[in-house]
Amino acid sequence: MQKKRAVVLQQEWGGKPCDHPAFAKEYDLGARTGSFICTQCGRTFTFREKAEIVAVRPAEDTAE
Ligand SMILES: [Zn+2]
C-alpha cells in the first residue's frame, strides 16, 4: 500500500479503535519502506510492531 493511501485511510477511519485485522506492506514512491500498514485504519507499524500483534492471534491470515 502506498503511504499516501494510508494517510487517506487514517482520515477516513477517524481515530476510532481498531484491532488491525490485516496488514499491507508500505510503499513510498514505489519502494518498500520495510513498514506495514493496517488496511482498516491506515496506521503504520514497524515490522516488529506488526509481528507482535500477529503473534498473539490464534490464527494468522498471511495474505500479502
Ligand atoms: Zn488498524
Itemize the secondary structure elements and their pairings.
Elements: H1 3-13, E1 23-28, E2 31-38, E3 44-45, H2 47-55
Zinc ion binds next to loops.
Summarize this structure briefly.
The chain has 64 residues and is of the alpha+beta class.
Tell me which ligands are bound: zinc ion
Reported for the largest beta sheet, the result is: 3 strands, antiparallel
Count, helices:
2
Give helix and strand order, one letter per element, not per position: HEEEH
Report the span from N to C terminus.
10 Å
Number of DSSP strand runs: 3
| Poorly predicted runs | none
Can you list the strand order of the major beta sheet?
A: 1-2-3
Shape: flat
> Which structural class do the helices and strands define?
alpha+beta
Query: C-alpha Rg, in Å?
Result: 11 Å
Helix percentage range:
25-40%
What is the overall pLDDT average?
Answer: 92
Counted up, domains total: 1
Percent of residues in beta strands? 25-35%
